[in-house]
Amino acid sequence: MPKDSGIGASSKRREDVRFLTGAGQYTDDINIHGQAYVHFLRSSIAHGRLNGVDTSTAETMPGVVRIFTGSDFEGVGGLPCGWQVTDRHGEPMQEPAHPVLAQGKVRHVGDPIAAIIADSPSQAIDAAEAIVVDLEELPAVVDMKEAVKNGATKVHDDLTSNLCYDWGFVEENKDAVGEAFEQAAHVTTLELVNQRLVANPMEPRVAIGNYNRANDESTLYTTSQNPHVIRLLMGAFVLGIPEHKLRVVAPDVGGGFGTKIFHYAEEAFCTFAARQINRAVKWTCSRSEAFMSDAHGRDHVTKIELALDADNNFTAIRTDTLANMGAYLSTFAPSVPTWLHGTLMAGNYKTPLIYVNVKAVFTNTVAVDAYRGAGRPEATFQLERLIDKTARELGVDPIALRRQNFITKFPYATPVAVEYDTGDYVATMDKLEQIADLSGFEARRKKSEADGQLRGLGINCYIEACGIAPSALVGQLGARAGLYDAATVRVNATGTISVMVGAHSHGQGHETSFPQVVAEMLGIDEGMIDIVHGDSSKIPFGMGTYGSRSIAVCGSAMVRATEKIITKAKKIASHLLEASEADIELKDGQFNVIGTDKSCAWGDVTLAAYVPHNYPLEEIEPGLEETAFYDPSNFTYPAGAYACEVEVDPATGKVTIERFSAADDFGNVINPMIVSGQVHGGIGQGIGQALLEHGIYDENGQLLSGSYMDYAMPRASDVPFFEVDHSCQTPCTHNPLGVKGCGEAGAIGTPPAVVNAVIDALHSGGHTHVTHIDMPVSPSRVWSAING
Amino acid sequence: MTTITMTVNGQLSSREVEGRTLLVDFLRNGLNLTGTHVGCDTSQCGACTVHVNGRAVKSCTMFAAEADGSCVQTIEGQSNVDGSLNVIQQAFQDNHGLQCGFCTPGMVMAAAELLKNNPKPSEADIRHHLEGNICRCTGYHNIVKSIMAASGQNFSAIAAE
Amino acid sequence: MYNFEFVKPLSVADAVSALSDDGAQALGGGQTLIPTMKQRLASPDILVSLANIVEMRGVKHFSGNVTIGGATTHEAVAAADAFAGLTTLAGNIGDPAVRNRGTIGGSLANNDPAACYPAAALATGATITTNSRDIAADDYFQGMFTTALEEGEIITSVTMPIPEASNYQKFDQPASRFALVGVFVAKYAEGVRVAVTGASEDGVFRWSEAEVALSANFSADAIANLSLDASGMIKDLHGSKEYRANLVKVLTGRAVGLAS
Q: Which of A122, A651, A711 sits opposite C175 (nearest CB)?
């Protein structure tokens, strides 16, 4: 029987009611009395020397309050990077300055040159048109292979080249990997592109800065996944505002997908300017502006090779990747192609030797940083496309080849520095074969062929490292922050509870699932528990939501804090019941003296804590509130197997997803309904990457797909119903809930399954010369591949 | 500036607007009906969908002055009179048809128009009707399921086909 | 967006008068014009809404023709079900909310090279009626975003001879959902007309070789050996010239097979 409350129950989401009635409170719904509006004048060229900005006419225009340019920020810090990668030679990465407003040069289309504050948004835009910018156009650096050549135009004049770092992992394995390739019975090589994507949460970014002269306090309302991180970065590194004078609020946020992790110039600007003009300053990003100011994702060009012995055992993997950083280092950009990518290159397979090389490159494009999956989709795509190609070259079944090489003993230490604690890849593959009805595939293929369509089946396995992250480990890897999380459980006198959590919910349903955990632990009704998130003034601390970490890290902090509550509550109960503390049990919201009929209710204990008339004041303090910080000892390792069936119309190249199945192992599951929803969404974005989406620049650095007119977002008609299953559960061994995280799986596991299916379809139609098609696998690309 | 008047969720509302004032700005800024959202500027995402005289329109692609004298319905006017969720809203909650909630008002308004004209839509009808409403969170699975449920259809039977 | 004065005349005569002012521009459903104005790429001083002109709305049948008022929405055209190809075409423009606002007159006046309606008008040999004259479709379309309309001239109605059989095949551009290529095939007693949108750098065009072949033999086989010169086709991130030329042929064959 499914549970109807607590851990494992598909509790309906309580946040839905406000969203379904228009009562949500997103940042753009907030207006502060007397606020002014800022418009950013952005570069229309990709690369140019900024010789001057003449704002004199614009300043006289109606409604203009003040205009800022780069020179106003000369004494102010630049936007910091939160991760330092050390290269193969032991040198730190090249780290350019990133001013809030451009200074000296513009480096991508959309680089902000001036900020115009006016009484109305349209007045600010009118004034922007009157600003005269003296810009000397320079050659644009767009193609990564060109960018790293000797003598290439430099994006940053003060760096030695466009190379941010040349990273080798594990460098000590390089020679051994080379030898393994020399001794291999078979080597398969694949060159591919993991194309640039634009995250496109449906809510564009918004920032409102406010300043209170009375207490010298600044407040930023922003569309962020991690308000405390923004407070730390912006306060300490950009504006020099001490944390106790800076409040960051992220109210309802309309999707993030990574792109709202980072600290952006517009946030710093609004906070800074509000203090300068003593008036709230609001910025609402348009979608077109988002395309040139939100950090993008992916954008890797890779060559990957697999060595096998004569028995088809994997013996070594070697990869060479160019990773686009864009024009500046976004907050976590350096970590994505390295520690979130290289460490996952073993996948689900016991390959003894692996060497990953990544060259990160500066170009005159928008900065690239984490987007749903962040590094792990890139690793999975390479590996799983490569295994498929290998199976085809060897003439063996792609599922059998995978099964033969699966890791089956846990814990398993990979040759790329991580240790998988648990997993059962055979079980998820077995489950997949069942839910995807693979035995019925040939019959479905024949039916498609009768309709003139080519049907293909694509399989994919994935592993990801989630629950980001053990602070000590990531510190060694270059992180400039700890990645623990925090929670405060505040029990009120009448027994209701507010849980202040550092994780931020922007679609994940924390307001529903987190109380399920506390309710289960205390045996009280979920409705008595509320989650408070998204406001640095209300929450002890938090590193926010990304990397499928919320329940694994912040949820664990919440468990620890609740355990402290139980300990103290039992002490109070033992006093009230005049029994020994060791004899008290908490069950179904009642404190019982074991072996007796003596008990008192949850509410009796909470009331006593706040009305301590009969209370052991000499032993414990009044009140019932506990805080815990939780730092994980390892990553979590969700894994699974996905299957995609497509039909390809050979005349037009159009690919239709006919079936999609996902068997995931997320360890224990708190709310199965929400988990399935997360997988659905990830699959949707994965199909978007596989078939539709492409952030594509021309040779001058102009983004050709800079709006929904050319950037193809997945629509309802682009996807089928999905078959998802998460009944295979190997609980995480090192967090108290045994959970692994589920937010990114779909986006990681889906693209290779789709592309593998397309290649399979083309081969079934006799187009055996097609061994790979880069994403997005658009109709024109498929048609060209068939006819090429 | 001209004065326009329209009935919004049953209430007569008059405001001064510029020629360029979009219907969505009139609703959000003029009437503080912030449930209608703006997710793009090229008329694709549908987060701003409202009904004007019973028909779904993108309120970011209609001037407020064009709606002068009209009856407008927004997400804020969809609940039952007792404040409880209406059939479509309830189906979205029951079937987890929303995550971040930003596209949701537009989805509900689009679904309402569909079900008014086509009380038992097929899966294909629903997907076709949602062509102008983009969701980034759900992969549409549970949105389509919610609309089927709202129309009293058995989703499991249809999905199994 | 720049500000403007908004006027909504109730008659064609008043609209024509309003449009004679400097900087005046007509507003149909606004589904293309408003996004363009948001980007400040159009800046009328006066915007003349045609939506309230009752005489410009509706679909009427008359002796083998269908006449559609210039301010008739795509949704109304789809609902009128005048003939198969037109119903399919109107019911698949943009999305439901766009179809509830966008008008046939607005689409034809704009003549976007990827719009659907120009294909229907050209394939049916429609007559475009304005406040001052009738224009044959063959004379009306003059290249991308270019038409025979004079400044201030309003499309009051469009009359299409109802074909014996017709079909419209649209291959969506995956982002905008405009036509990457759209082919309208219309069969009449006097011959077959094939009009193609989305494909050519010159905007909508008639594929005359296909028309000749199909007039002799109305089956997909009739065009099997034809090939379309790719040199004048559009090339963009969604498809090459050759790909578009291929689509024209494939979609034409499918339209013939499905014509009803």
A: A711
**Chain B within 8 Å of C3 (Cβ-Cβ)?**
yes
- Residue A279: φ, ψ to 5°: -160, 145
A662 neighbors A724 (Cβ within 8 angstroms): yes
CA B29 to chain centre: 18
- Which 3 state secondary structure label does DSSP give C52? coil
Which of chain C's residues have a Cβ under 8 Å away from the Cβ of A708? 175-176
Cβ neighbours of A328 (radius 10 Å): 24
> Domains of chain C, with CATH numbers?
5-49 (3.30.43.10), 56-161 (3.30.465.10), 165-258 (3.30.390.50)
DSSP string, A27-39: GGG---TT-EEEE
> What pLDDT score was predicted for residue B159?
60
Q: Which of C3, C101, C176 sits opposite B20 (nearest CB)?
A: C3
Residues A623 and A650 in one domain: no
| Domain tally, chain A | 3
Tokens 């815990």 found at: A628
Environment class of A652 (CB within 10 Å of its CB; exposed 0-12, middle 13-18, buried 19+): buried
A749 near A462, Cβ under 8 Å? yes
Cβ pair A717:B96 closer than 8 A = no
Under-70 pLDDT residues of chain A: 1
The residues facing A358 across adjacent strands are: A167, A321
Instruction: State the CB neighbour count (10 A cutoff) for residue B126.
Output: 25
- CA dist A609 and A494 (Å) reads 10
Chain B contact for A674 (CB, 8 A cutoff): yes
Ordered by where they begin, the domains of chain B are 2-77 (3.10.20.30), 87-160 (1.10.150.120)
Task: Using CB atoms, list chains with 3+ pairs below 8 Å to chain A.
Answer: B, C
Please tell me the distance from the alpha carbon of residue A293 to that of residue B136, in angstroms, as a whole number. 19
- pLDDT at position B88 is 98
Tell me if A50 sits within 8 A of A133, measured CB to CB.
Answer: yes
| pLDDT of res. A3 | 87
**How close B93 comes to chain A (CA, Å)?**
6
Paired with A266 in beta bridges are: none
A67-85 confidence digits (pLDDT tens): 999 999 998 999 999 999 9
- Does A674 share its domain with A752? yes
A610: containing domain: 16-22+484-630
Q: Are residues A277 and A425 in the same domain?
A: no
Q: Where are the beta strands (DSSP E) in A327-469?
A: 353-362, 412-413, 419-420, 454-463
Gap between the Cα atoms of A714 and A692, Å rounded: 7
> According to the model, what pLDDT value does residue A788 have?
83
Is A461:A750 a contact under the CB 8 Å cutoff? no
Same domain as A621, residue A512: yes
Query: Which positions of chain C have pLDDT values less than 70?
Result: none
A451/A494 same-domain check: no
Test mutation, C246, C251, C252, chain A, max A CBs within 10 A: C246
* A204 found inside a domain: no
Indicate whether B160 pLDDT > 60. no
Give the whole-angstrom CA distance, residue A492 versus residue A203: 35
Nearest Cα neighbor of A394 from A309, A306, A312 is A312
| B contact test, residue of A16, A294, A708 with most B CBs within 10 A | A16
- Write the DSSP assignment of A521-582 as a string of letters: HHT--GGGEEEE-SBTTTSS----S-TT-IIIIIHHHHHHHHHHHHHHHHHHHHHHTTS-GG
If asked whether residues A373 and A269 sit together in one domain, one would say no
- Residue of B43, B49, B63 with shortest CB distance to C35: B43
> In this structure, are A391 and A455 located in the same domain?
yes
**pTM > 0.80:** yes
Helix (H) or strand (E) holding A660: strand A655-665
For A135, residues 6+ apart whose C-beta sits below 8 A from its C-beta are: A43, A45, A48, A49, A50, A51, A106
